[in-house]
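Support case: user asked for a sample of complex input and structure output to validate their parser. Sending the pair below.
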Amino acid sequence: MATIVGSVMTSHVPSIGNAIAKHRENDPYWKPFFDGYPPVRAWLDRVKPDVAVVFYQDHGLNFFLDKMPTFAVGAAPEYRNADEGWGIPTVKPVKGDPALSWHIIESLVADEFDITMCQEMKVDHALTLPLALMWPGGGDWPVRVVPITMNHVQHPLPSPKRSYRLGESVGRAIASWKEDVRVLVMGTGGLSHQLDGQRAGFINKPFDLMCMDALVDDPKKLTRYSALDLVREAGAQGTELMAWMAARAALPGRVTKVHSHYHVPISNTAGGLLALQNDGAALARAA
Amino acid sequence: MGGKQRDYGIPGTPIFDGHMAQKGYALNAMCYSFNSADNRAAFKADEDAYCRKFGLNDEQRSAVANRNVLELIAAGGNIYYLAKFAGIFGLDVQDVGAQQTGMTKDAFKAMLLEAGR
Ligand SMILES: [Fe+2]
């Protein structure tokens, strides 16, 4: 049976891609951000996931306003990155896991989530940069991926509660998968930031830190917010917190915090990182 | 065109809802096309022709000509697609933020640093 080793949530700002390509990880501007990642990489080296199920939003690479799914699940053998128009280098393709994708799709629909199924899907920086942060070195990715996108482009957005329930349902789907694979659940985006309007540059550090704490011990508490509450508290694009909530919700039992990190700013954004171990899986391994 | 823009009561914060998505469709379609380097080059080569091809209205055409982000948003532009437009001129999201807040880029960056303290 499949095992969920844990969850990793991280920010995914495009300029991280340039910083990596230009080897600026140790520049004074970037170092306080990149310094968060080595402990999480060390943990990943120990738990060795085979597959990453990744919650994120597509920022206008794969989807346009002509067809905008609220939630979409990729079921492709391979996912390609491509030119996103803002000048970050593309990275190597990532292998998919179609069998697990279809199992998750069937399980979600049986659970009454009316998701969109995608046998072709380009993946943008919101999937590729978190992979590059976890497994640096240019993209011989040690994991296969199942991408799950959430609409944060066009209102009405899904609610935080619905996003959380989606994560719970994906967690149950993975737990019932017959293959003996080790699965990492990732949520990417946020934390607080706003790119548009006279309030551009808005960041809310107390709110972010409250959310990062809640995600460890009391994640359901965040489901009382509406999407517009998140716009108000975390900025217009800070709603991406919902990807973190979904990734956390996939872990039903006790968790242990592996590492967390918070640094402001990267570009216009509060950079957050949180890694949680699934205690149930860790116990099963020890036994 | 689906009534007027709703007020969501969050100051300085545009909400890209169905009304705006409908209003801005042509503009956003053009900006989405800038995922391709050939299209970016075509825009640079003949901006007028490129805007005509996507059927921009007068408000959108003038916001594009002015390179004015708040005008582009008022004309229905979504910030993620607009960022691809800004990329043509080598502008990043901090340039875009500085323009919208009426700050210099340095002042805008200083504000972000301050938010981290
Ligand atoms: Fe994002």
